[in-house]
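[job 4471] stage=fold_predict status=RUNNING
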Amino acid sequence: MTPVTPSRGLKVVGGTDVVQGLGLLGIEGITVNDAEEARRALEALLADPDAALVLVDEAWVEGVREILETAAQSASGPLVVEIPSATGTGAAEALHHRVEQALGLKLRE
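[job 4471] inference complete, writing C-alpha cells
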C-alpha cells in the first residue's frame, strides 16, 4: 500500500484560507464558495482513485452532510475527515462523536 503524502492522496475541500494554507504544505485542494461547489468538489474527490484522505472545511459540512454520512459508511473510497475552519470548533466535536459511534461507547460524560 502506498502511503498518503501531501503530494499523493491527501486532498482538501474548503474556503480560500484553508485551501491556501494547506497548499503551503503541499496539499492539493479545491476552493469552494458555496454549498453547491462544496458538493461537486467532494463528489469529484470521492470518485478520484488517487484520493486516499479528503479533508473538508467545517464551514461547508452542512451542505454536504449526507455525502459525508454515506462516505463514512462506505468501505471503498477515501477517508473523509471534517477539519476546523479558521474560526470554528465544531469539527472537533464531530470527530469526537464519530469516534464514539465507531467504538460504541461514550468517551466522556
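[job 4471] summary: The chain has a mean pLDDT of 80.
[job 4471] exit 0
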